[in-house]
From TrEMBL:
It holds the Pfam family ACT_8. This is ACT domain-containing protein. PANTHER family: ACETOLACTATE SYNTHASE, SMALL SUBUNIT (PTHR40099). PROSITE patterns: ACT. Residues 71-143 form the ACT domain. It comes from the Archaea.
Length: 143
């Protein structure tokens, strides 16, 4: 199951990240996970949020450039090599991993790893065949 990630392009200037977060707070949007990649001039804030449509609209209305991306969120077993076992599944089938980041579920107390892969449909099938739990958009709303 795919979920939506928002990528917000922000200037690498003092106060820009805070402004972005405040925009979401004012709209009562909960951030489930985030990742920041930056260069000297700008940053990319990747977000998993409770209401991606509302978040995208409110950020764009506030002047931010926002991109919507499909990603996979997988519940990873809390054990030695939990992540490694998932990476092995993808690697065996030559799925190219572009990036990943993680957060912890309040409900299950398990690690949730967000994967951006080149072949998302193939990856979903592989992970489901291994009986791994994939989150859907509704799961993110209910956290």
């Amino acid at each position: 199951m795919k979920i939506k990630q928002l990528s917000v392009f922000i200037e690498n200037k003092e106060g820009r990240l805070k402004k972005t977060i405040n925009t979401l707070v004012k709209a009562d949007i909960n951030i489930r996970a985030l990742s920041i990649a930056d260069t000297s001039k700008f940053g990319i804030l990747r977000l998993i949020v409770s209401d991606f449509k509302k978040a995208k609209n409110i950020l764009e209305e506030d002047g931010f450039v926002v991109k919507e991306t499909d990603v996979i969120a997988v519940e990873i077993p809390d054990e030695t090599n939990g992540l490694g076992s998932v990476l092995t599944i993808l690697d065996k089938e030559e799925v190219n991993l572009e990036y990943l980041y993680a957060f912890v579920s309040k409900q299950s107390h398990q690690a949730i790893v967000v994967f951006r892969v080149q072949n998302i449909e193939k990856s979903i099938k592989l992970l489901k065949n291994e009986n791994l739990k994939l989150l859907n958009q509704k799961d993110l709303e209910e956290f």
